[in-house]
Structures are given as structure tokens and as C-alpha cells.
Design goal:
The protein has 282 residues and is an alpha/beta fold. Helix content is 38%, strand content 19%. It is built from nine helices and six strands. It has a six-stranded mixed sheet with strand order 2-1-3-4-6-5, with helices on both faces. The longest helix has 15 residues. The N and C termini lie far apart (51 Å).
Length: 282
């Protein structure tokens, strides 16, 4: 029996996420990933041959999608509030377009949020979003796990679990989107050491907000050992370490009669066997 998402335990402290994003903005955000996504999103929308008159940017951190706002100056921005609430302020069938950048990976009820977006879109309205997923920060996850096991005799959750490509595609279908598409943009960033990476994560507002996180600061010995293991396993010949970020792109349309429809079962005029025979004769 399927579980009710409302009864599932929350993974993320979204109020803490809001606070950390605000702190990152005050300290000077590190935005290279967001800038990359912003430019890519603008390019992807430019390839869609239609105009969007009612659009919303959902929970994109920092200053939002600057390049996209140049193209869609009327886009409404929905910021994450101090409570981290996941109920969306959209009326049914009120929007042509919903976009979101680097935010959906911190949603507790992603199926529910996608369903809310689907209801808010007019027929033939578009969702286009980018979220962190896949093998993102796998190097940091492995280094922390090895260091804690060695220094403290156990492992605590340090890096959030990320959805993979197949999970996201299935969720789009489950939410009722037509023509769902997903793909991955892998970004590998190099740093002088693990501490430089962690500093960037702090200034992205993307440090650990897991509800089950350890509340005490990490031991100095564990942090130093983590950095050593990271360098041993994931450094290039010049000594700089690698950090992987998988940006999962997802898009889907609110169903409309004008969209391409799959053929009905049994409607094919040529059988597969006949097609194979013909191919063998050529």
C-alpha cells in the first residue's frame, strides 16, 4: 500500500534552510552554480516557441534568476519564507510557466509540491526546473563517512540524500505532467582542499539542514582526517581536489489536447516481425 506523503517524516529543516540562505546572502553568496543554471534555463526557454504571460520563479535562492528576468521581466518571484512552508500560493490554472533553480532538492514532499505546480499550470503550461541530485558531493560524503568511522566509531548524516534521474522522471509522471523530460548536467569543480569546498557550501546556504543531523560541532580531529581522506582519494596530480555537482533538469507540461499523444495499443499498421524481416533484406 502506498504511504501518505503527509504522514512521512520530514528530512529537511526548511526553517533552518531559510536562515542559512539569508546568512549566505549577508556574507556574500557564492553563485557560480546558480549563474550556470540561470543561463542554461534562459537558453532552454528560448528554444520553446511560445510566449509566457503569467510566470513564477519558485524558491530559487539568492537573487533569483537574473538572466531569465531580463527575458521575462514580469515573472513573479516566490521566495522561501521563514517557516519553510511547502504550500504554494498559486490559484488553479493561473500560470503559463513555473521555473525553479537549485531549490527542489530541499523539499520534504516533492510529489506534493509537483502536484501543486501541476494544478497551478494552465493547460499546456510548462514546468522547467533544475535541482541538485544524483552523485552530487559523493566525494565529501565518502570522506566524512570514512573519517567518522575511523575517528568516532560511527557515521552521522552529513550530506543530504539526493534523488536520481529515474526517480524524478517517475515523480513527474505521477504528478500528471505530460511529455516529461529529465537530463543531467554534471559539473566538476576543483578546490585547494576540502575546507575550501565547505566554505563555498556555507556561502551557497547549502550546508547540512537534515533534521537528523548531529547537533554538536564536528571534532577537529575528524575534520582533519576527513580532509586527508578526501585528498588521498579525490585529488588530481596537482593536488587539487574534485567536487561533483549533478544538476538534474526536469520539465513537463500540463496536459492539453494539442500535445502529441502516444498511439493506442494495437493501432500499429506494421508488426515488429515484419519490420525486422524488411530490415534484414536491406
Amino acid at each position: 500500500m502506498a504511504q501518505d506523503p503527509q504522514n512521512l517524516p520530514a528530512l529537511f529543516d526548511r526553517a533552518l534552510l531559510h536562515a542559512r540562505q539569508q546568512r549566505a546572502r549577508a556574507q556574500g553568496s557564492v553563485s557560480f552554480l546558480l549563474e550556470r543554471v540561470d543561463e542554461d534555463m534562459s537558453d532552454r526557454l528560448a528554444a520553446v516557441m511560445r510566449e509566457f504571460h503569467a510566470a513564477a520563479d519558485l524558491w530559487t535562492p539568492g537573487d533569483g534568476l537574473m538572466a531569465l528576468r531580463t527575458r521575462l521581466p514580469s515573472i513573479a518571484r516566490v521566495a522561501l519564507d521563514a517557516t519553510g512552508a511547502e504550500k504554494l500560493p498559486f490559484a488553479p490554472e493561473s500560470l503559463d510557466l513555473v521555473v525553479s533553480a537549485l531549490a527542489l532538492q530541499f523539499v520534504n514532499d516533492l510529489p506534493g509540491v509537483l502536484a501543486q505546480i501541476r494544478r497551478a499550470l494552465k493547460p499546456d503550461g510548462l514546468l522547467l526546473a533544475a535541482m541538485i541530485g544524483g552523485d552530487s558531493l559523493t566525494e565529501l560524503r565518502q570522506a566524512f563517512a570514512a573519517a567518522e568511522a575511523e575517528c568516532e566509531g560511527g557515521v552521522s548524516p552529513r550530506v543530504a540524500p539526493f534523488a536520481d534521474l529515474r526517480d524524478i522522471g517517475a515523480l513527474l509522471q505521477r504528478a500528471g505532467f505530460a511529455l516529461p523530460v529529465t537530463d543531467v548536467d554534471r559539473v566538476v569543480v576543483r578546490y585547494a582542499n576540502a575546507f575550501a569546498l565547505m566554505q563555498d557550501l556555507r556561502r551557497m546556504g547549502a550546508t547540512n539542514v537534515l533534521i537528523e543531523r548531529r547537533r554538536k560541532p564536528a571534532r577537529r580531529a575528524t575534520l582533519l582526517r576527513m580532509a586527508e581522506i578526501y585528498a588521498e582519494r579525490f585529488a588530481d596530480p596537482d593536488g587539487r581536489i574534485r567536487a561533483t555537482f549533478d544538476v538534474i533538469w526536469l520539465s513537463g507540461w500540463a496536459p492539453h489536447a494539442s500535445q502529441q499523444q502516444p498511439l493506442k495499443p494495437g493501432s500499429a499498421k506494421t508488426s515488429l516481425a515484419e519490420a525486422v524481416k524488411k530490415a534484414g533484406k536491406t
